[in-house]
Structures are given as structure tokens and as C-alpha cells.
Amino acid sequence: MFTGIVEEVGTIKSINRGQHSAVLTVRAKTVLEETRIGDSISVNGICLTVRQLFPDSFAADVMHETLNRSALAQLTVGSAVNLERAMPANGRFGGHIVAGHVDGVGRIANIRKDDTAIWYTIHADPAILRYVVEKGSITIDGISLTVAAVEPTGFSVSTIPHTVRQTNLNQRHKGDFVNLETDVVGKYIERLLPSETPKQNTLTKEMLLRCGF
Q1: Partners of 46 in the beta sheet?
Q2: Which of 51, 40, 46, 143 is nearest to 85 (CA)?
Q3: pLDDT at 175 over 90
Q4: Helix H or strand E encompassing 95
Q5: In whole angstroms, what is the distance from residue 158 CA to residue 137 CA?
Q6: What is the residue-wise DSSP string for 109-173?
Q7: Cα separation of 140 and 45, whole Å?
Q8: How many CB atoms sit inside 10 A of residue 202's CB?
Q9: pTM, whole model, 2 decimals?
Q10: Which NCBIfam families match (predicted)?
Q11: Among 44, 97, 178, 194, which is least packed by CB within 10 angstroms?
């Protein structure tokens, strides 16, 4: 479990690609502290397991499924990546509940300044947008952000200068692909709610009352 509060920006040291998988070696500093082989580290929002540790980096396997669902395939040697260690049981939630399981990939459609803030508009598939709500939480490349606006083809977030400086957002451009993870709570609620009919799942006030909400 993660919080979406990036600890540091690392860089890709090497990528060893197989036929349907890869091994990433990521140069880092902060996230190496007290990290052991088998621990989890979020790399651009993707939960990866440390397989090797080096004085200045760590290596992790990337499965076929991960490559298919994320933007990791776009990375090259030298790419900047957001890093966060798994949250300790006695830690504080600075962001929101993040599983590190990417739902899909979005594309930056626009970047604009608004005084000190910077707005990022992300286009995404309907399958992802159904779980995106205004003022709700979204994870972009492992960064916990608040949705400021939702449109038919995408959504927008407004970021503060600190977030841009402390993450790889300052190296993102229009047209770049980003990893997206929606709020896991909404997905579980949808899954657990009973269907009105075998072919229809209608969320109404009456249904919520029957389910004890």
C-alpha cells in the first residue's frame, strides 16, 4: 500500500528487455534506505518488487501484464521516475490509498499555467473515466492528486509548485503517456453492489438504503 506522496525522483539506469518482460534497474538514494530484497517500491505508480540491491540503485522484474497495462514500455535509459516506498503500518496518510496497480494509461492533452498553479489535462479511456469524479482522488505516475474537473474525454488536475518540483511532472510535456490508478474504494463498491437484474446494475438511493448505506 502507498499514499501517492513521492519520496524522490529516480532515473532509469538500465532496461533489460525479454520477449514479454523486462528487468528495470533504477538509480535512487532515499528509497534505498532500510530497503531489503522483496520489498515493494512504487515506480511511476506501479508496485514493483525489489529483486536486487546495489549501492546506488535497485532492480525489479516487470511482468508482461504490467507492460501491457502501463506506460513503462515508454521508458528509456535516463528517464525520470517517481519513487515511493510502501507505507509502514505506523505511517501517516499524506495522500490517499494507493495500491500501485495501474488501471491504464492516459495522455497529457494540455498543460497550462494559472498564476502559481499548473493545470494538467489528461485524456483517458471511458473504462477509466467512469471512476473519476470531481474532487475525488487520482494517481498520475504515482502522484496522489485531486481531480479538479471532469470532461467526456478526460479530466484535469491543478498542481502546486512544490508537487511539480518534487516529481517528474516538471519533465512532462503535451502528448506524454502517464500511468493512471483510480480510487480503489469506488471499484470495490461497484463490485459488491448487487445487480437489480442479471443485465443491469443501477445505483439508486433506494438500493443504497437497502444495502445499509
Answers
A1: 43
A2: 40
A3: yes
A4: none
A5: 12
A6: EEEEEETTEEEEEEE--HHHHTT--TT-EEEETTEEEEEEEEETTEEEEEE-HHHHHHSGGGG--
A7: 7
A8: 10
A9: 0.86
A10: PRK09289.1, PRK13020.1, ribE
A11: 194
